[in-house]
Design goal:
The protein is an alpha/beta fold. It has 2 domains: 174 residues, Glycogen Phosphorylase B (Rossmann fold, 3-Layer(aba) Sandwich), CATH 3.40.50.2000; 166 residues, 3-Layer(aba) Sandwich (Rossmann fold), CATH 3.40.50. It is 36% helix and 15% strand. It has a 7-stranded parallel sheet. The longest helix has 19 residues. It is elongated. The protein starts with 20 loop residues before the first strand and ends in a 6-residue tail after the last helix. The N terminus is likely disordered.
Protein backbone atom coordinates (compact mmCIF):
# COMPACT_ATOMS: atom_id res chain seq x y z
CA UNK A 1 0.00 0.00 0.00
CA UNK A 2 1.38 3.38 -0.99
CA UNK A 3 0.04 6.83 -0.34
CA UNK A 4 0.44 9.22 -3.28
CA UNK A 5 -0.26 12.88 -2.59
CA UNK A 6 -0.70 15.10 -5.63
CA UNK A 7 -0.50 18.82 -4.86
CA UNK A 8 -2.47 18.96 -1.62
CA UNK A 9 -4.80 21.92 -2.21
CA UNK A 10 -4.82 25.10 -0.18
CA UNK A 11 -7.81 26.88 -1.69
CA UNK A 12 -9.08 30.25 -0.58
CA UNK A 13 -12.54 30.43 0.93
CA UNK A 14 -15.29 29.99 -1.66
CA UNK A 15 -18.89 30.28 -0.41
CA UNK A 16 -17.74 29.08 3.00
CA UNK A 17 -16.68 25.70 1.63
CA UNK A 18 -12.94 26.07 2.15
CA UNK A 19 -11.39 23.12 3.95
CA UNK A 20 -14.63 21.12 4.13
CA UNK A 21 -13.28 17.63 3.76
CA UNK A 22 -14.70 15.40 1.03
CA UNK A 23 -13.61 11.83 0.36
CA UNK A 24 -14.33 10.07 -2.93
CA UNK A 25 -14.43 6.26 -2.82
CA UNK A 26 -14.49 5.08 -6.42
CA UNK A 27 -13.92 1.96 -8.47
CA UNK A 28 -14.09 3.99 -11.68
CA UNK A 29 -11.34 6.55 -12.24
CA UNK A 30 -8.52 7.09 -14.77
CA UNK A 31 -6.09 5.76 -15.89
CA UNK A 32 -8.80 3.26 -16.85
CA UNK A 33 -10.62 4.54 -19.93
CA UNK A 34 -14.39 4.93 -19.93
CA UNK A 35 -17.30 7.28 -19.50
CA UNK A 36 -17.66 6.70 -15.77
CA UNK A 37 -13.92 7.15 -15.22
CA UNK A 38 -13.99 10.58 -16.84
CA UNK A 39 -17.24 11.44 -15.06
CA UNK A 40 -15.70 10.82 -11.65
CA UNK A 41 -12.52 12.75 -12.48
CA UNK A 42 -14.59 15.65 -13.78
CA UNK A 43 -16.58 15.71 -10.56
CA UNK A 44 -13.37 15.54 -8.51
CA UNK A 45 -11.84 18.47 -10.37
CA UNK A 46 -14.95 20.58 -9.84
CA UNK A 47 -14.94 19.78 -6.12
CA UNK A 48 -11.34 20.98 -5.91
CA UNK A 49 -12.09 24.15 -7.90
CA UNK A 50 -14.94 24.91 -5.52
CA UNK A 51 -12.62 24.94 -2.52
CA UNK A 52 -13.16 21.51 -0.99
CA UNK A 53 -10.32 19.62 0.65
CA UNK A 54 -10.73 16.50 -1.50
CA UNK A 55 -9.17 13.06 -1.14
CA UNK A 56 -9.78 10.41 -3.82
CA UNK A 57 -9.31 6.68 -3.25
CA UNK A 58 -9.37 5.05 -6.71
CA UNK A 59 -9.02 1.38 -7.61
CA UNK A 60 -6.06 1.88 -9.93
CA UNK A 61 -2.91 3.95 -9.59
CA UNK A 62 -3.51 7.54 -10.68
CA UNK A 63 -0.47 9.77 -11.14
CA UNK A 64 -1.62 12.92 -12.93
CA UNK A 65 -0.90 16.16 -11.02
CA UNK A 66 -4.16 17.47 -9.59
CA UNK A 67 -5.35 20.03 -7.05
CA UNK A 68 -6.72 17.21 -4.91
CA UNK A 69 -5.08 14.42 -2.96
CA UNK A 70 -5.00 10.84 -4.26
CA UNK A 71 -4.37 7.81 -2.08
CA UNK A 72 -3.35 4.89 -4.28
CA UNK A 73 -3.68 1.38 -2.87
CA UNK A 74 -1.51 -1.07 -4.80
CA UNK A 75 -3.14 -4.33 -3.78
CA UNK A 76 -5.30 -6.96 -5.48
CA UNK A 77 -9.06 -6.69 -5.08
CA UNK A 78 -9.87 -8.41 -1.74
CA UNK A 79 -6.96 -6.76 0.06
CA UNK A 80 -7.55 -3.41 -1.67
CA UNK A 81 -11.09 -3.27 -0.26
CA UNK A 82 -9.84 -4.05 3.22
CA UNK A 83 -7.06 -1.45 2.94
CA UNK A 84 -9.45 1.27 1.74
CA UNK A 85 -11.79 0.46 4.60
CA UNK A 86 -8.99 0.75 7.14
CA UNK A 87 -7.68 4.01 5.66
CA UNK A 88 -11.12 5.60 5.74
CA UNK A 89 -11.81 4.27 9.23
CA UNK A 90 -8.70 6.09 10.43
CA UNK A 91 -9.30 9.30 8.47
CA UNK A 92 -13.04 9.96 8.57
CA UNK A 93 -14.92 11.98 11.12
CA UNK A 94 -18.62 12.77 11.16
CA UNK A 95 -18.12 16.29 9.81
CA UNK A 96 -16.80 14.87 6.52
CA UNK A 97 -18.67 14.13 3.30
CA UNK A 98 -18.13 10.87 1.39
CA UNK A 99 -19.03 10.48 -2.28
CA UNK A 100 -19.25 6.94 -3.74
CA UNK A 101 -19.36 6.16 -7.45
CA UNK A 102 -21.93 3.37 -6.90
CA UNK A 103 -23.68 1.39 -4.19
CA UNK A 104 -20.83 -1.15 -4.27
CA UNK A 105 -18.31 1.43 -3.08
CA UNK A 106 -20.32 1.99 0.08
CA UNK A 107 -18.81 -1.27 1.31
CA UNK A 108 -15.47 0.44 2.03
CA UNK A 109 -17.06 3.03 4.32
CA UNK A 110 -16.94 2.15 7.99
CA UNK A 111 -20.36 1.75 9.60
CA UNK A 112 -19.22 4.06 12.37
CA UNK A 113 -19.29 6.96 9.90
CA UNK A 114 -22.35 9.15 10.58
CA UNK A 115 -21.56 12.00 8.21
CA UNK A 116 -23.09 12.70 4.80
CA UNK A 117 -22.81 9.80 2.35
CA UNK A 118 -23.65 10.61 -1.28
CA UNK A 119 -24.00 7.81 -3.84
CA UNK A 120 -24.12 8.11 -7.63
CA UNK A 121 -26.55 5.89 -9.56
CA UNK A 122 -26.02 5.14 -13.25
CA UNK A 123 -28.79 2.81 -14.40
CA UNK A 124 -28.05 -0.78 -15.22
CA UNK A 125 -26.66 -1.64 -11.78
CA UNK A 126 -30.29 -1.38 -10.60
CA UNK A 127 -31.48 -3.96 -13.13
CA UNK A 128 -29.79 -6.70 -11.09
CA UNK A 129 -31.81 -9.82 -10.30
CA UNK A 130 -33.35 -10.57 -6.91
CA UNK A 131 -30.07 -12.05 -5.70
CA UNK A 132 -28.69 -8.52 -5.35
CA UNK A 133 -31.83 -6.83 -4.02
CA UNK A 134 -31.03 -7.20 -0.31
CA UNK A 135 -27.38 -6.16 -0.79
CA UNK A 136 -28.39 -3.06 -2.72
CA UNK A 137 -31.07 -2.05 -0.21
CA UNK A 138 -28.67 -2.60 2.70
CA UNK A 139 -26.11 -0.33 1.03
CA UNK A 140 -28.65 2.35 0.09
CA UNK A 141 -30.00 2.54 3.64
CA UNK A 142 -26.68 4.09 4.59
CA UNK A 143 -26.89 6.75 1.88
CA UNK A 144 -27.82 10.30 2.81
CA UNK A 145 -28.43 11.17 -0.83
CA UNK A 146 -28.63 9.24 -4.10
CA UNK A 147 -27.74 11.18 -7.26
CA UNK A 148 -29.31 9.47 -10.28
CA UNK A 149 -28.04 10.26 -13.76
CA UNK A 150 -31.53 10.34 -15.32
CA UNK A 151 -35.22 10.05 -14.54
CA UNK A 152 -35.02 6.50 -15.89
CA UNK A 153 -32.44 5.56 -13.25
CA UNK A 154 -34.31 7.36 -10.47
CA UNK A 155 -37.50 5.50 -11.35
CA UNK A 156 -35.67 2.17 -11.38
CA UNK A 157 -34.62 2.71 -7.78
CA UNK A 158 -38.06 3.90 -6.70
CA UNK A 159 -39.86 0.99 -8.34
CA UNK A 160 -37.49 -1.85 -7.42
CA UNK A 161 -35.95 -0.96 -4.05
CA UNK A 162 -37.01 0.26 -0.65
CA UNK A 163 -35.39 3.66 -0.29
CA UNK A 164 -36.75 7.07 0.65
CA UNK A 165 -37.55 8.64 -2.71
CA UNK A 166 -37.24 12.11 -1.16
CA UNK A 167 -33.49 11.50 -0.96
CA UNK A 168 -33.14 10.80 -4.70
CA UNK A 169 -32.27 13.65 -7.05
CA UNK A 170 -31.50 13.64 -10.77
CA UNK A 171 -28.35 15.34 -12.09
CA UNK A 172 -26.94 14.62 -15.58
CA UNK A 173 -23.42 13.11 -15.30
CA UNK A 174 -21.72 15.70 -17.50
CA UNK A 175 -19.36 17.11 -14.87
CA UNK A 176 -16.34 16.81 -17.17
CA UNK A 177 -17.75 18.91 -20.03
CA UNK A 178 -16.39 22.45 -20.10
CA UNK A 179 -18.31 25.48 -21.31
CA UNK A 180 -17.72 26.11 -25.00
CA UNK A 181 -18.70 29.05 -27.20
CA UNK A 182 -21.39 28.41 -29.83
CA UNK A 183 -19.95 26.29 -32.66
CA UNK A 184 -19.37 27.88 -36.04
CA UNK A 185 -21.27 25.85 -38.62
CA UNK A 186 -20.23 26.91 -42.11
CA UNK A 187 -21.94 26.10 -45.37
CA UNK A 188 -20.60 22.92 -46.96
CA UNK A 189 -22.26 22.71 -50.38
CA UNK A 190 -21.60 19.38 -52.10
CA UNK A 191 -19.34 18.36 -49.21
CA UNK A 192 -19.25 14.85 -47.86
CA UNK A 193 -21.59 14.41 -44.89
CA UNK A 194 -19.75 13.26 -41.77
CA UNK A 195 -21.40 10.79 -39.39
CA UNK A 196 -19.76 9.88 -36.10
CA UNK A 197 -20.20 7.35 -33.29
CA UNK A 198 -18.14 7.42 -30.09
CA UNK A 199 -18.87 4.54 -27.73
CA UNK A 200 -17.87 1.15 -26.48
CA UNK A 201 -18.56 -1.30 -29.29
CA UNK A 202 -21.09 -3.56 -27.64
CA UNK A 203 -24.33 -4.97 -28.96
CA UNK A 204 -26.77 -2.62 -27.28
CA UNK A 205 -25.31 0.53 -28.87
CA UNK A 206 -27.40 -0.19 -31.97
CA UNK A 207 -24.56 0.21 -34.46
CA UNK A 208 -25.29 -3.08 -36.20
CA UNK A 209 -28.89 -1.98 -36.74
CA UNK A 210 -27.75 1.45 -37.94
CA UNK A 211 -25.27 -0.03 -40.43
CA UNK A 212 -27.95 -2.32 -41.81
CA UNK A 213 -30.45 0.54 -42.06
CA UNK A 214 -28.09 2.89 -43.87
CA UNK A 215 -27.20 0.13 -46.34
CA UNK A 216 -30.93 -0.19 -47.17
CA UNK A 217 -31.57 3.57 -47.45
CA UNK A 218 -32.11 4.05 -51.17
CA UNK A 219 -33.01 7.75 -51.13
CA UNK A 220 -29.83 9.33 -49.76
CA UNK A 221 -28.97 12.33 -51.90
CA UNK A 222 -25.52 13.18 -50.50
CA UNK A 223 -22.21 11.38 -50.17
CA UNK A 224 -21.44 10.32 -46.62
CA UNK A 225 -18.62 8.99 -44.46
CA UNK A 226 -18.98 7.46 -41.01
CA UNK A 227 -16.28 7.33 -38.33
CA UNK A 228 -16.94 4.73 -35.62
CA UNK A 229 -14.65 5.44 -32.66
CA UNK A 230 -14.23 2.94 -29.86
CA UNK A 231 -13.22 -0.53 -28.78
CA UNK A 232 -15.22 -3.56 -27.73
CA UNK A 233 -16.28 -7.09 -28.40
CA UNK A 234 -18.48 -6.09 -31.34
CA UNK A 235 -15.64 -4.59 -33.37
CA UNK A 236 -14.91 -7.75 -35.37
CA UNK A 237 -18.54 -8.59 -36.30
CA UNK A 238 -19.19 -4.93 -37.16
CA UNK A 239 -16.18 -4.84 -39.46
CA UNK A 240 -17.28 -8.08 -41.11
CA UNK A 241 -20.75 -6.63 -41.61
CA UNK A 242 -19.33 -3.50 -43.23
CA UNK A 243 -17.29 -5.64 -45.63
CA UNK A 244 -20.26 -7.86 -46.50
CA UNK A 245 -22.41 -4.80 -47.27
CA UNK A 246 -19.66 -3.21 -49.40
CA UNK A 247 -19.50 -0.15 -47.14
CA UNK A 248 -15.77 -0.23 -46.37
CA UNK A 249 -15.23 2.97 -48.37
CA UNK A 250 -17.84 4.77 -46.28
CA UNK A 251 -17.34 3.43 -42.77
CA UNK A 252 -14.02 3.57 -40.93
CA UNK A 253 -13.24 2.15 -37.48
CA UNK A 254 -10.89 4.11 -35.25
CA UNK A 255 -9.63 3.44 -31.75
CA UNK A 256 -7.06 4.65 -29.23
CA UNK A 257 -7.54 8.27 -30.26
CA UNK A 258 -6.63 11.03 -27.82
CA UNK A 259 -8.84 13.89 -26.66
CA UNK A 260 -7.52 16.32 -29.29
CA UNK A 261 -8.31 13.84 -32.05
CA UNK A 262 -11.78 13.20 -30.66
CA UNK A 263 -12.51 16.93 -30.61
CA UNK A 264 -11.29 17.25 -34.20
CA UNK A 265 -13.71 14.51 -35.29
CA UNK A 266 -16.60 16.12 -33.40
CA UNK A 267 -15.91 19.54 -34.90
CA UNK A 268 -16.22 18.19 -38.43
CA UNK A 269 -19.20 15.92 -37.69
CA UNK A 270 -22.71 16.56 -39.00
CA UNK A 271 -24.61 13.77 -37.23
CA UNK A 272 -23.98 11.59 -34.17
CA UNK A 273 -25.28 8.02 -34.43
CA UNK A 274 -25.83 5.72 -31.44
CA UNK A 275 -29.38 4.26 -31.39
CA UNK A 276 -28.87 2.23 -28.22
CA UNK A 277 -31.45 -0.05 -26.64
CA UNK A 278 -31.85 -2.34 -23.64
CA UNK A 279 -30.63 -5.92 -23.77
CA UNK A 280 -31.55 -7.85 -20.62
CA UNK A 281 -29.75 -6.06 -17.76
CA UNK A 282 -27.70 -3.78 -19.98
CA UNK A 283 -29.08 -0.33 -20.76
CA UNK A 284 -28.00 3.25 -21.48
CA UNK A 285 -28.41 4.99 -18.13
CA UNK A 286 -27.94 8.42 -19.71
CA UNK A 287 -25.54 8.75 -22.64
CA UNK A 288 -22.83 11.38 -22.11
CA UNK A 289 -21.63 10.88 -25.70
CA UNK A 290 -24.80 12.54 -27.00
CA UNK A 291 -24.01 15.63 -24.94
CA UNK A 292 -20.37 15.64 -26.04
CA UNK A 293 -21.70 15.89 -29.60
CA UNK A 294 -24.17 18.60 -28.56
CA UNK A 295 -21.21 20.70 -27.33
CA UNK A 296 -20.28 21.09 -30.98
CA UNK A 297 -23.81 21.59 -32.30
CA UNK A 298 -24.11 18.02 -33.59
CA UNK A 299 -27.61 16.47 -33.38
CA UNK A 300 -27.95 12.79 -32.54
CA UNK A 301 -29.84 9.70 -33.57
CA UNK A 302 -30.45 7.94 -30.26
CA UNK A 303 -32.50 5.05 -28.97
CA UNK A 304 -35.86 5.58 -27.32
CA UNK A 305 -35.23 3.49 -24.20
CA UNK A 306 -33.35 3.92 -20.93
CA UNK A 307 -31.80 7.28 -20.17
CA UNK A 308 -31.16 8.20 -23.80
CA UNK A 309 -34.43 10.12 -23.87
CA UNK A 310 -33.08 12.39 -21.13
CA UNK A 311 -29.99 13.20 -23.21
CA UNK A 312 -31.72 13.62 -26.59
CA UNK A 313 -35.17 15.18 -27.08
CA UNK A 314 -36.90 13.63 -30.06
CA UNK A 315 -37.85 16.23 -32.63
CA UNK A 316 -35.85 18.97 -30.90
CA UNK A 317 -32.19 18.01 -30.36
CA UNK A 318 -32.18 14.85 -32.45
CA UNK A 319 -34.12 11.71 -33.26
CA UNK A 320 -35.08 9.02 -30.70
CA UNK A 321 -36.05 5.76 -32.39
CA UNK A 322 -36.45 2.06 -31.72
CA UNK A 323 -33.43 0.66 -33.58
CA UNK A 324 -35.08 -2.75 -33.78
CA UNK A 325 -37.74 -1.19 -36.02
CA UNK A 326 -35.76 -1.09 -39.27
CA UNK A 327 -38.24 1.22 -41.02
CA UNK A 328 -38.19 3.76 -38.18
CA UNK A 329 -34.39 3.80 -38.01
CA UNK A 330 -33.99 3.98 -41.79
CA UNK A 331 -36.47 6.88 -42.03
CA UNK A 332 -34.63 8.80 -39.30
CA UNK A 333 -31.25 8.29 -40.99
CA UNK A 334 -32.66 9.31 -44.38
CA UNK A 335 -34.24 12.49 -42.99
CA UNK A 336 -31.18 13.43 -40.97
CA UNK A 337 -28.74 12.84 -43.84
CA UNK A 338 -30.81 14.52 -46.55
CA UNK A 339 -31.92 17.64 -44.66
CA UNK A 340 -29.15 20.08 -43.81
CA UNK A 341 -31.74 22.53 -42.52
CA UNK A 342 -33.20 19.99 -40.08
CA UNK A 343 -29.75 18.95 -38.85
CA UNK A 344 -28.81 22.57 -38.29
CA UNK A 345 -32.02 23.33 -36.39
CA UNK A 346 -31.71 20.34 -34.09
CA UNK A 347 -27.96 20.82 -33.71
CA UNK A 348 -28.45 24.43 -32.59
CA UNK A 349 -31.08 23.29 -30.09
CA UNK A 350 -28.73 20.57 -28.83
CA UNK A 351 -25.98 23.11 -28.21
CA UNK A 352 -28.37 25.49 -26.43
CA UNK A 353 -29.55 22.68 -24.15
CA UNK A 354 -25.94 21.74 -23.41
CA UNK A 355 -25.00 25.32 -22.56
CA UNK A 356 -28.01 25.88 -20.28
CA UNK A 357 -28.46 22.47 -18.63
CA UNK A 358 -25.51 20.13 -19.15
CA UNK A 359 -22.22 22.03 -18.93
CA UNK A 360 -19.84 20.83 -16.22
CA UNK A 361 -19.99 24.00 -14.07
CA UNK A 362 -23.81 23.96 -14.07
CA UNK A 363 -24.30 20.31 -13.06
CA UNK A 364 -21.41 20.40 -10.57
CA UNK A 365 -22.92 23.45 -8.85
CA UNK A 366 -26.21 21.58 -8.52
CA UNK A 367 -24.42 18.52 -7.14
CA UNK A 368 -22.53 20.57 -4.56
CA UNK A 369 -25.61 22.51 -3.43
CA UNK A 370 -27.44 19.24 -2.75
CA UNK A 371 -24.41 17.50 -1.26
CA UNK A 372 -23.98 20.12 1.48
CA UNK A 373 -27.66 20.62 2.32
CA UNK A 374 -28.24 20.10 6.01
CA UNK A 375 -31.58 18.39 5.42
CA UNK A 376 -29.72 15.57 3.67
CA UNK A 377 -27.43 15.07 6.67
Amino acid sequence: MKKNTNNDPSPSSKDGLSRQRVFMATQTFPPRIGGMEYTMRGLARNFARSGFNLTVLPNHVYREPESFRVINVRLIKPFRIIAKRLILKLMLNDDDIVVCDSWKSINVITRRFKGRLVVLAHGQEYLKDQHYKKRIETALRRATLVVANSEFTANLIKERYQYNSKNIIVIPPTYMLDDLPPPEKTEKPNAVLRLISICRLDRRKGLQEAIQAISEASELNVDWKWDIIGNGEEEKPLKEMVEDLNLANNIKFRHNIDDAEKIAFLKQADLFVMPSYQINGSVEGFGVSYIEAAQYGVPAIAGNSGGSVSAVIDGETGWCVDPRDSNQLRDALTTAINSQEERRRRGAAAYHRFATAFSGPIVSKTFIENMIKKEHA
